[in-house]
């Protein structure tokens, strides 16, 4: 089973979307294994978005992600990295399909509600940036046998 990192950004928190977003992932059948409500420090934001350091939107992105609380989570399941990227939708919410989180809840690219790891490598890196090993819970949902064959 794969793990991925998903964060509800400050716009999602301010707009009261925490419950709706988490519900979609629970209803899909993925398993929550870590979660915290937290402020992202400038240092953590710079590391997290390191790949975009040279981009013109980098400063705005760091200012935004540090502007208020986020919900940081780890989700586990079959092909979960790719599946959550699909459930999030394209980066620009106006291009994201209806039925996706960004497609249903967002308008502007700089207010696109969620972050999700885009590969196995970034999932590993981002999980390590946001969580200690002891914060990741190994548990067996009773419903699992009705989700996986
Ligand atoms: P994603 O969040 O879909 O993985 P990304 O990694 O390319 O997208 O970019 C990270 C975040 O940076 C994205 O969620 C919103 C912001 N961003 C990306 N491209 C942008 C642009 N052209 N203008 C403003 N913000 C942008
Ligand atoms: Mg990305």
Rg (CA only) = 15 Å
Question: What number is the mean pLDDT?
Answer: 98
Total helical elements: 7
> Which regions are unreliable across 5 or more consecutive residues at pLDDT < 50?
none
Order of strands, widest sheet: 2-3-1-4
Oligomer: single chain
* Class derived from helix and strand content: alpha+beta
**Which of globular, elongated, flat, extended, rod-shaped describes the shape?**
globular
The bound ligands are: 2'-deoxyadenosine-5'-diphosphate, magnesium ion
Tell me the helix content: 25-40%
Major beta-sheet overview: 4 strands, antiparallel
| Element-by-element helix/strand order | EHHEHHEHHEH
Q: Any overview of this molecule?
A:
The protein has 149 residues and is an alpha+beta fold. It is built from seven helices and four strands; from the N terminus they run βααβααβααβα. It has helices at residues 10-14, 18-28, 42-48, 58-65, 80-88, 101-105, 120-130; strands at 2-8, 31-38, 70-77, 114-116. It has a four-stranded antiparallel sheet with strand order 2-3-1-4. The longest helix is centred in the first third of the chain and has 11 residues, at 18-28. The two termini are 14 Å apart. Residues 52, 57, 61, 91, 109-110, 112, 115, 118 line the site of 2'-deoxyadenosine-5'-diphosphate.
């Amino acid at each position: 089973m794969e793990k991925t990192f998903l964060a509800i950004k400050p716009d999602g928190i301010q707009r009261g979307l925490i419950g709706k977003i988490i519900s979609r992932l629970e209803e899909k059948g993925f398993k929550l294994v870590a979660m915290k409500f937290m402020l992202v420090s400038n240092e953590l934001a710079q590391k997290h978005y390191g790949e975009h350091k040279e981009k013109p939107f980098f400063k705005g992105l760091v200012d935004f992600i540090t502007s208020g609380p986020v919900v940081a989570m780890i989700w586990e399941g079959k092909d979960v990295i790719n599946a959550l990227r699909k459930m999030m939708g394209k980066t620009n919410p106006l291009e994201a399909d209806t039925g996706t989180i960004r497609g249903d809840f967002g308008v502007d690219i700089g207010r696109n509600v969620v972050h999700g790891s885009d590969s196995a490598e970034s999932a590993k890196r981002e999980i390590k940036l946001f969580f200690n090993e002891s914060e990741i819970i190994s548990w067996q949902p009773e419903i699992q046998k009705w989700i996986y064959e």
